[in-house]
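W.,

You were right to be curious about this one. When I first looked at the sequence I had no strong expectations either way, so I just let the prediction run and decided to look at it fresh. Below is the sequence, 161 residues in total, followed by the output.
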Amino acid sequence: MKSEFNFPLHYHEELELNFIMNGKGAKRVAGDHIAEIDDLELVLPGSNLPHVWTKHKCKSKEIKEITIQFHKNLLRRNQLSVIRNILEKSARGLSFSKETTKQLMPRLNMLPQKQGFDSVLELISILHDLSISKNMHMLSDASFNNAFFIPAVVSKKYLST
């Protein structure tokens, strides 16, 4: 908790999600927009947008502020590199252990019931869990080349047993 805002007007390349509680009467400046805020505030200033919060008329001595900065290319950053790595490895096919499969089974069964953004978040979460799984192995050999893949040959050789 704090009793005042102490950052000057500033801007940065990162995006910033700002949650403020008990800030009634404080002044927010974001670009050319100036407003007095209420008790609850949630603002997402974009990259390089000048912004600041000032005490203004705020009388609270218990202002709570949570600021989360993240890069505008978040999905291309290292935070998701483990998922990107597993997707690259999947070019050869990946198989996961029975233990991993059992752990993920309830979530996989529920995935078709999720819709929109929730389904995407759950899929990313599942892919993350798979990417940190210790029990996986590659299916195709590194020398396998898709250019020589002939479905008729594969179906005769591998499918007729």
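Here's what jumped out at me. The CA atoms of residues 104 and 126 lie 7 Å apart. And, maybe more interesting for your project: The chain has two domains: 15-70, 76-140.

Coffee later to discuss?

I.
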